[in-house]
Amino acid sequence: MIGVRETVLIHELKRQGLGVSAIARQTCLDRKTVRRYLARGIEAPRYSPREENERIAERFRSYLLGRLEAYPGLSARRLHREITPMGYEG
């Protein structure tokens, strides 16, 4: 899928009078792709909502918060080393 910028470029080249083949050569796209985007028009991309996934570190949240409460100066690297043997794979 090409971006909005490329879609606008395709429509601008068509408005300037170029044919589908000329637009395809200039944009390095297939003629069928150029035709499809010309037929579709300029539209904003549609994104579907992402499904909620549990964060990898969520299982270790209480442990990490407890460690930071007890030792506020702990680095992320140190905490990572601590939870890796506990099963953290992130």
TrEMBL record:
Residues 5-68 form the HTH IS21-type domain. Keywords: DNA recombination, DNA-binding, Transposition. Belongs to the transposase IS21/IS408/IS1162 family. This is HTH IS21-type domain-containing protein. It comes from Gluconacetobacter sacchari DSM 12717.
